[in-house]
Amino acid sequence: MKNHAEVIIIGGGVIGCAAAYYLAKKGVKSIVLERNEIGYGGSSRNGGGVRQSARDPRELPLAMHGAQYLWPQLSEELGVDVEYCQKGNLRLAKTEAHLKTLEKLVESSHSNGLDVKMISGDEARQICPYMSHEVIGASWCPTDGHANPMLTTLAFYKKARELGVRFITGENVSEIRKIKGRARQVVTDETIYEGDSILLATGYESRPIANTVGIDIPMQRILLEALVTEAQPKMFDQMLGTAAADFYGHQSKHGSFVFGGSTGLEPYISEQPYPVTTSFTASSTCRGIIKYFPVLKDAKIVRTWAGWIDDCADHVPVIDQIEEVPGLVLACGFSGHGFGISPTVGLLLSELVTNTALTLDIFALRYNRFKARA
Amino acid sequence: MSKVVERSQDLGPCIPQNDDDLIICRCEEITKGEIRQAVHDGMYNLTEVKRYLRTGMGLCQGQTCSRLVRSIVAKELGISPAELELTSARSPARPIEMQTYSNEVW
Predict the structure, then answer these.
(1) What is the mean pLDDT of chain A?
(2) Nearest CB partner across the interface for A37, out of B48, B61, B96
């Protein structure tokens, strides 16, 4: 049948494309349905961090597996340079309170087996000499890094497509239908697709689609913004973040600096129909950056953009088979840090869909973990 | 926007052309040949081509080349340029120093 495949994947973002690729590697054919273009949502709008430090212990193993086994070979494997750079992550502190925040994060990650430690401001400036003397300390994880999220998403797409995966864009999924108790049909505005299994990975939009088979994940849509400078001479390789969360970013292979930042007002500006930038976020991010990197004050901003994250109630994703709906696998709620773990998630999803042994234990990311307070 | 597009179309081989070395996106120095190859790699709209090759991501933000890129991509796909949407225009309209941008206070 023309619209039938072993697996129907809803969502052509980095998660859906990675899952399609790892399934194709196992010889499992899928159809990927995407409403807009490939990588329309957060997949192309994030800051490109491939970070293990400061991860919740529940998703840290996914980040560590990726940094050790998947990211280093990814460009070669997919045949596209995804600009992966594994030169470490500095999380910066300017106050004693910042240091305390970082110490707690370091202790948690360290007890879970990650090579991360606290260093002094001067040690941080030895690693990245362009930082202002306002920085009094940092956490340092040498195996963290960054990559180009747009190229990573398109590279998974390109390779999966070459391996015979069918991608269809412009398909707006309205409903999943059960046949004889199993998830089987995916209904779009134009047609109906059928699969032996269905994988749902459409960020926040997973929620209304999962609702059509009676499953609800507590998450909300939050607008985040990022910006990019013109190309600068090569300065440093590290991924940067701050304890205050006023900005994060890195210098790309192209030479431009990609920075993201938040203002604290995000929950109150997220109800627009399209992800568009506000008049105040980019300037707030610039003020944050200049305090840490005064040397960048004359760098020109060429572009700003916005995107939604699917912020889960406990800020880690749901990656699971749905008991009540056999044949349905759900991956959503990545809460703004899904890109770095996307290869691992794609691999795990290919295992969940085919009912094969899982590379990692993801019981902590099950869909039915959310409980009311009393 | 939501026109259904099958991504595994047979576009035939990407046959080299005499002017493949022509620079189309001057800011990022992307050639006609690279844009044609990107379409054959599966990039079927201007946003994907932009993210794949950086066309229109430089200082002029595509104000010079976006229509040229559109006509090349359309020709390669065998469709009318009118069927391809231009990429989103993003703030700021002209490059601005971070110091100047940071003066805007809400």
Answers:
(1) 96
(2) B48
Answer whether residue A122 is part of any domain: yes
State how far residue A35 is from chain B, nearest Cα, in angstroms: 7
Same domain? A94 vs A125? yes
Domain of A351?
4-47+150-218+314-365
Q: Which of residues 134-153 of A touch B (CB under 8 A)?
A: 150-151, 153
The per-residue pLDDT for A329 is 98
* CATH code where residue B68 lies: 1.10.10.1100
| Segments of chain A scoring below 50 in pLDDT | none
C-alpha angle with apex A327: A326 to A333, nearest 5 degrees? 95
Q: Does B40 touch chain A (CB under 8 A)?
A: no
Residue B106 has pLDDT above 70, yes or no: no
pTM greater than 0.95: yes
Look at B54 and A168 and tell me if their CB atoms are within 8 Å.
no
pLDDT of residue B2: 61
Smallest Cβ–Cβ distance between A303 and the set B5, B61, B102 belongs to B61
ipTM exceeding cut-off 0.85 for this assembly: yes
Answer with the one of A284, A312, A340 that is the final residue of a domain: A312
CB atoms within 10 A of CB B98: 25
Partner-chain contact A283 B105, CB within 8 Å: yes
